[in-house]
Write a structure and sequence with these properties.
The chain is mainly beta. Helices cover 0% and strands 50% of the residues. The protein is built from no helices and 11 strands. The protein has strands at 3-7, 10-13, 18-25, 32-39, 46-51, 58-60, 68-73, 78-83, 92-100, 116-117, 121-126. The chain is globular, with a radius of gyration of 13 Å. The mean pLDDT is 97.
Length: 127
């Protein structure tokens, strides 16, 4: 059974940085497209970033482009989200998601695209 466990969330001042990690088990991560989503209180879960199986393709939400970087290490079964220049509006619970795909370049950007989800990690940004 695929399990995803996020870590790295916490409290940071505006302008600061955090690095989120997602550790996968029960699967060969190289067969999965991966994504990061976030959900703030009272809001829908929204796309943040996604990466292809190979790591060669990435996509970002406009709101985080240029500030966040998603990467993966298939040998370690982990994906990461480096978040720089954090803003109060980035505050949310961040979720890692996975879906097995055939295409090595497939990048998935909607909640319904993904089959597996982690439990989330809280990111709090103080102004």
């Amino acid at each position: 059974q695929v399990q995803l466990v996020e870590s790295g969330g916490g409290l940071v001042q505006a302008g600061g940085s955090l690095r989120l990690s997602c550790a996968a088990s029960g699967c060969t991560l190289s067969m999965y497209a991966m994504g990061w989503f976030r959900q703030a209180p009272g809001k829908k879960r929204e796309f943040v970033a996604a990466i292809s199986r190979s790591g060669g393709s990435t996509l970002y939400a406009d709101s985080v482009k240029g500030r966040f970087t998603m990467s993966r290490d298939n040998a370690k079964n982990t994906v990461n989200l480096q978040m720089n220049s954090l803003k109060p509006e980035d505050m949310a619970v961040y979720y890692c998601a996975a879906r097995p795909v055939l295409g090595i370049s497939a990048v998935l950007t909607t909640v319904s695209d993904y089959d597996y989800w982690g439990q989330g990690t809280q990111v709090t940004v103080s102004s």
